[in-house]
Design brief:
With 417 residues, the chain is of the alpha/beta class. It has 16 helices and 16 strands. Helix 13 crosses helix 14. The protein binds N-(iminomethyl)-L-glutamic acid and fe (iii) ion.
């Protein structure tokens, strides 16, 4: 090689080189997994430095690189759970029993149970207790390949308790090697002290909570539960306006139990995503497509609430709306901390293809969190958050449930499992 060639194309120093692997890169929206078989992947400074067919591997400095034989296993991006309520006090097993005796989720909520009962338990819990109870849930997700998680507040419903929840969510990232993205969901339910004064509560959310959350950088996104048992369109719009004024991104819980038009409103405010959306209309889908929003589908809540209205997957596909999948891990509608079960349910319940389901917890989940330039794909320059699976084809990740095929997990270039 000439000196000139070396100057323009220096021989790289890599920290880790995986040989003999297959890659589900999840590039191009995850079409056919972005498959590259008989591949190699190199990591440097916590980023993906090279990937491709092993036969095309360029020369590299051999002295300082750790070479790992992947034994024909599959690498995917580290999984991303883009919608959770992982931090909360108590549990709602009693309401599960009530529902089995015939009461609906709405009836329980209207009778003072539901989210409000978790608010009571969360307010009573200390930060240390909340951390202790959330840790096994995060551990369960991490052991299934999750390297990034979104965690919402929304069970505090006053400034101190919302700050407590978001602080605990941040502390979880110090306990486990998982990237935590925090969302402020003050407009989740009406706290008892604001009974019959929902506008007064929204004023508190907009004028007192959002400014503090933004100033203290406790969250970078604001979510609203836009629903008959949540907040109406006018209230949702006030929260979105306040979020924008403070430079925060927005997303919505919308069209979960009825069609209020929260998704169209979210699109008007360039939201990252609209989540649940079983009752979304064709107009809502077009609005999402025009605003380049992500549809976050939550099969765990659909299953656990025994919902019968399916999200409009075929129309979302037709309009090219990216679909993400998440656990919605929470004590009421989805007490489920298994991203692998979500992969299975996205296919069995919502009829996604396995490739679409995997895109839902990688590239499209990154998009739903505004992280699509750094996470959710195996691409050069992306964060080296990578899962190694003991499988012979990627569809196995969706097909079999209950046996964990994860054989290694890398976060920011470091092997953490
Ligand atoms: O995503 N829909 C509103 N919020 C949660 C449920 C929270 C709860 O029931 O505690 C959800 O389903
Ligand atoms: Fe949720």
């Amino acid at each position: 090689m000439t000196n000139t060639a070396q100057a323009t194309n220096p021989i790289p120093h890599w920290q880790t080189l995986w040989l003999n692997v297959n890659l589900a890169t999840m590039t191009n929206g995850g079409d056919n997994y972005g498959e590259i078989c008989d591949a190699a992947l190199a990591i440097s400074d916590g980023k993906i430095a090279w990937l491709g067919k092993q036969a095309d591997l360029p020369s590299y400095h051999k002295s300082d690189v750790e070479v790992i034989d992947g034994q024909g296993r599959w690498l995917t991006p580290g999984l991303i759970d883009c919608h959770t309520h992982l931090v909360y006090g108590g549990n709602r097993a009693n309401e599960f029993e009530m529902r089995l005796q015939g009461k609906s989720y709405q009836e329980i909520a209207e009778a003072g149970g539901g989210i409000v009962s978790t608010v009571k338990a969360t307010r009573e819990a200390s930060a240390a207790e909340l951390l202790k109870s959330a840790l096994p849930r995060l551990t369960a997700l991490h052991q299934q390949g999750v390297t990034t998680i979104e965690i919402k507040s929304g069970y505090g419903l006053d400034l101190d308790n919302e700050v407590k929840m978001l602080t605990v969510a941040g502390e979880l990232a110090e306990q486990l090697p998982v990237t935590v993205k925090r969302t402020f969901l003050g407009a989740h339910a009406l706290p008892v002290e604001y009974k019959d004064n929902s506008d007064g509560y929204i004023k508190l959310v907009c004028d007192e909570m959002i400014p503090v959350i933004a100033e203290q950088k406790l969250a970078d996104t604001v979510d609203v539960f836009c629903e008959n048992i949540g907040f109406d369109l006018a209230q949702t719009e006030r929260v979105f306006t306040a979020a924008k004024q403070h430079g925060l991104a927005i997303k919505a819980h919308a069209e979960q139990l009825s069609n209020l038009g929260g998704t169209e409103l979210a699109a008007k405010y360039q939201a990252l995503s609209s989540d649940h959306i079983e009752f979304l209309s064709a107009a809502g889908i077009k609005a999402m497509s025009a605003a380049n929003m992500t549809a976050v589908l939550l099969p765990g809540a659909f299953y656990f609430l025994r919902e019968t209205q399916l999200p409009p997957v075929e129309l979302l596909r037709k309009h090219g709306v990216a679909m993400a999948i998440a656990t919605d891990a929470n004590p009421g509608s989805s007490p489920i901390c298994s991203i692998q079960l979500m992969l299975n349910m996205a296919c069995t319940l919502f009829r996604l293809t396995p490739s679409e389901a995997l895109a839902g917890v990688t590239c499209n989940a990154a998009k739903a969190l505004g992280l699509s330039k750094t996470k959710g794909q195996l691409s050069v320059g992306f964060d080296a958050d990578i899962a190694l699976w003991n499988i012979s084809q990627p569809a196995e990740l969706c097909y079999q449930f209950g046996v964990n095929p994860l054989s290694a997990l890398i976060q920011n270039g470091q092997q953490v499992i």
